[in-house]
Write a structure and sequence with these properties.
Blueprint: E1 7-9, H1 13-19, E2 22-24, E3 28-30, E4 33-37, H2 39-48, E5 51-54, E6 59-62, H3 64-78
């Protein structure tokens, strides 16, 4: 795939882990490519209270409930 292509990935957990809790609205840049959460998934996470939007910094910010969501999932996967 070309380095300029933007990827839409639905699963939010990798973004939370790789971004350190602040996901740029344009996506996470890796090797010259931007990976960004699916718009519907990101919207659902905001509605659930797992993410908030900081428009001044142009980022999604993971809430404590969002980190709990990730931790619970990782715990299950670790078993």
């Amino acid at each position: 795939m070309p380095a300029t292509e933007t990827h839409h990935i639905g699963c939010p957990r990798p973004y939370l882990v790789f971004s350190g809790g602040r996901i740029p609205l344009r996506g996470v840049e890796m090797h010259g490519t931007y990976f960004r959460p699916d718009v519907l998934v990101a919207g659902a996470l905001v509605k659930k209270g797992y993410l908030t939007v900081d428009e001044s910094a142009e980022v999604f910010v993971v809430t404590p409930d969002g980190w709990s969501f990730v931790a619970d999932t990782l715990e299950v996967l670790g078993k």
